[in-house]
Amino acid sequence: MMKSSFDFQPFSPKQLKILSWWRGGSPYASYDGVIADGAIRSGKTVSMSLSFVRWAMESFRGMNFAICGKTIGALRRNVIAPLKQMLPGLCCVCTDRRAENLLVIQCGGNVNYFYLFGGKDESSQDLIQGVTLAGAFFDEVALMPESFVNQATARCSVEGAKWWFNCNPEGPFHWFKTGWIDRREERRLVYLHFAMTDNLTLSPATLQKYRAMYAGVFARRFILGEWAVADGVIYSMFAEDGNVVDAAPFVPEREFIAVDYGTFNPCVFLHFVAAGVGDGIRHHVDREFYHSGRGEESGIAIQKDDAQYAADMLAFSGGRRDMLIIVDPSASSFITRLRHEGFTNIVPAKNAVTAGIAAVAVELEQRRLTFAPRCVHTVKELHSYVWDVKHAQKTGEDRPLKENDHCCDALRYGVYFDVLTNTSVRPSVSGRGGRF
Ligand SMILES: Nc1ncnc2c1ncn2[C@@H]1O[C@H](COP(=O)(O)OP(=O)(O)O)[C@@H](O)[C@H]1O
Ligand SMILES: [Mg+2]
Questions:
Q1: Does ligand 1 have an atom closer than 6 angstroms to the CB of 201?
Q2: How many Å is the Cα radius of gyration of the chain?
Q3: Which atom of ligand 1 is nearest the CA belonging to 9?
Q4: Protein residues placing their CB within 5 Å of the ion ligand 2
């Protein structure tokens, strides 16, 4: 056997099932595919990608296959790079025709063609309609549009074709849960549920580190591997006794402002002080600016325009036009106004809602995120910020109820931006490209 540059460690019994279910003699050999779901970092992608190529090379000659990720970029990082290191161990030679997003894999005299697709990439959606496949592998399938997966699975028309899926759990109403996992028997799919302990390469310290990275519904999904519903209070780990303190419990190293913008709806500025990098980041929100154009509190509705809000910002920043200001990405007119008023360090916030919420939840849970008692609107909203379960039931997608969410949006923009900026080594989870 040729030497592989991948550092193989012993496979766990679950991984061995992924590697062997399709072989002659297995009770599942005639099944039409396999689903592996469960915890992050549990060894799903490594075992499945290896098994998929082995199965393809041992079962077919000169056929086309699909390897799909959320995007081509995520696929290349999370699947193709490690796979290329593993292939020499199978005595396979892989030629990567990058411009065509095609891997040509040769074993002895046999050759098969593996086309790469990104479920969220528009071009992939069109391209997949034209091919005939003997098999398709979907890494992180729950992050792809259902329409793409339906297209791709429908292209598997060669006799003996099989479907291979893996993912981390989302909510229980997600299309992949209801349409595929719950219907696995009628669809004749092998189902394997992974826990972190099914990856024998994770040390107790690493397991502990991952466990500490998630809280609430995200811990149930990504650590326990449950298709847990996101309902009730989002920041259930927030406690005034623990997250509300008179002064920053650390020496501030940087400061910035985060903005959720509204004209009729409330407009919120939060001033943060922060310190540390990586897993040691601390945040303290020491001041808030809150204005509602509806005048619920004063009884007098006063709507402000961009120029008035820019003046409020100048006062809030203590006259500092070089302050880093992270702004609601949809507030383009306000961003333009701030720049016009001479603010030099304005950045649009990243609006990945669940990833941002997961980041805030962890910081709250770890008590690394605190608030001054005078941030009364923020503290109030943290208690009443809830998931929109009706929306999830209808669409399978999680999102917060859009009520009293303005301070929480500004908080999410600030924390998520700072965590992404100051955390260099992040495990990639769910191909979201960030820490979460
Ligand atoms: N048998 C193994 N030998 C070597 N490394 C492994 C093995 N199983 C898992 N790993 C490593 O553990 C990490 C997580 O595995 P991965 O398959 O990406 O998990 P998942 O897809 O479940 O998130 C990866 O770095 C992977 O290379
Ligand atoms: Mg994976």
A1: yes
A2: 25
A3: 3
A4: 45
Three-state SS letters, 240-307: HHHHECCCCCCCCCEEEEEEECCCCCCEEEEEEEEECCHHHCEEEEEEEEEECCCCCCCCCCCCCCHH
Looking at residue 312, its pLDDT comes to 97
Strand order through the sheet with 282-291: 346-348, 325-327, 254-260, 267-275, 282-291, 369-371
Q: H or E element: which one contains 165?
A: strand 162-167
For 274-300, how does the pLDDT look when each residue is reduced to its tens digit (9 = 90+)?
999 988 899 999 999 999 988 776 677
- Check pocket membership of 11 for ligand 1, CB cut-off 6 A: yes
CB of residue 68 inside a 6 A radius of ligand 1: no
pLDDT tens readout for residues 123-176: 888 889 889 999 999 999 999 999 999 999 999 999 999 999 999 999 999 999
What is the residue-averaged pLDDT of the chain?
Answer: 93
* Ligand 1 mutation pick, 46, 221, 222, 430, max ligand atoms within 8 A of CB: 46
Its pTM stands at 0.85
pLDDT in tens, 14-24: 999 999 999 99
Give the Cα separation of 137 and 183 in Å (integer): 18
Shortest-distance Cα residue to atom 14 of ligand 1: 41
Distance from the alpha carbon of residue 165 to the mean position of ligand 1, in angstroms? 16
Task: Give the residue ranges of DSSP H helices in 319-388.
Answer: 332-340, 353-365, 376-384
- Hey, how many other C-beta atoms are within 10 angstroms of the C-beta on 37? 25
Which ligand gives the minimal distance to the CA of 44? 1
Q: Which conformational region is residue 108 in: left (phi greater than 0), alpha (psi within -120 to 50 degrees), or beta?
A: left
Tell me the backbone φ, ψ of residue 341, rounded to 5 degrees. -80, 5
User: What pLDDT, on a 0 to 100 scale, did the predictor assign at position 178?
Assistant: 97
Task: Please list the ranges in the chain whose pLDDT falls under 50.
Answer: 425-436
- What's the CA-to-centroid distance between 47 and ligand 1, angstroms? 8
**Residue of 169, 167, 163, 160 lying closest to 150 (CA atoms):** 163
Res 246: pLDDT: 97
pLDDT at 216: 87
Residue with tokens 């780990």: 237
Domains and CATH numbers, the chain: 13-201 (3.40.50.300), 240-422 (3.30.420.280)
Ligand lying nearest the CA atom of residue 222? 1
Supply the pLDDT for residue 3.
Answer: 62
Ligand nearest to the CA of 140: 2
Among protein residues, the one with the nearest Cα to ligand 1's atom 20 is 41
257 neighbors 269 (Cβ within 8 angstroms):
yes
